[in-house]
Amino acid sequence: MRKKGKNRVRRTFSTAFKKEKVEMLDMGKISVKELSTIYEVSETAIYNWKKLYSKYKSDEPVVIEKISEGRKNIELLKRIAELERIIGKKQMEIDYYKETLEEILETSGEDLKKSTNTSND
C-alpha cells in the first residue's frame, strides 16, 4: 500500500470482493452511496466495478421494480380471488349445516335459540 496525500492510503480490493458488492447492488440490498460510505471508496470506483462485474449490461435498460411490482400485484390478486372462493365455499357449508341443524332440532321439537342462549339476563 502506498500513501496518497497526507492521510489517505491506497487500498486494493480483490476481484471477489468487488463482484460480491456488485451482486449486492444488482439485488438492491445496498446502494452505491452506502458502499462508498462504508468502505470509503469513491462512487466512481464503484460504478466502474458495476460496469465490469454487473450481470446487467449498461446498454440494456433495466426496470426491475415496476416489472416485479406488477407481477407481485397480479399474484396477490390471484391469491385474494382464491381466498374469497374458499371463504365463499366455507360460508355455504356453514349455512348448510346451520339449516340442517335447525331442521333436526325442529323435527325433534327443540328450540335452537333457547338451547344456545348462554347469556344470563
What do these coordinates show?
The protein is mostly helical. It has two domains: 3-53; 64-109. 68% of the residues lie in helices and 3% in strands. The protein has helices at 15-27, 32-39, 43-53, 64-108, 112-116; strands at residues 3-4, 8-9. The chain has a two-stranded antiparallel sheet with strand order 1-2. Helix 1 (15-27) packs across helix 3. It is rod-shaped and about 100 Å long. The mean pLDDT is 81.
The mean pLDDT is: 81
Which sequence of SSEs, written as H and E, runs from N to C?
Answer: EEHHHHH
Percentage of β-strand residues: under 5%
Shape: rod-shaped
Compute the number of helices. Answer: 5
Spatially, the strands of the biggest sheet line up as: 1-2
Number of strands: 2
Q: Alpha-carbon distance between the termini?
A: 87 Å
The percentage helix is 55-70%
- Poorly predicted spans: none
Biggest sheet features: 2 strands, antiparallel
Radius of gyration from CA coordinates? 32 Å
As for the number of domains, it is 2
Q: Structural class per helix/strand content?
A: mainly alpha
What distinguishing features does this structure have?
121 residues; mainly alpha; two-stranded antiparallel sheet; 2 strands; 3% strand; rod-shaped
SSE layout and pairing:
Blueprint: E1 3-4, E2 8-9, H1 15-27, H2 32-39, H3 43-53, H4 64-108, H5 112-116
Antiparallel strand pairs: 1-2
Give the structure's gist in a few sentences.
By secondary structure, this protein is mainly alpha-helical.
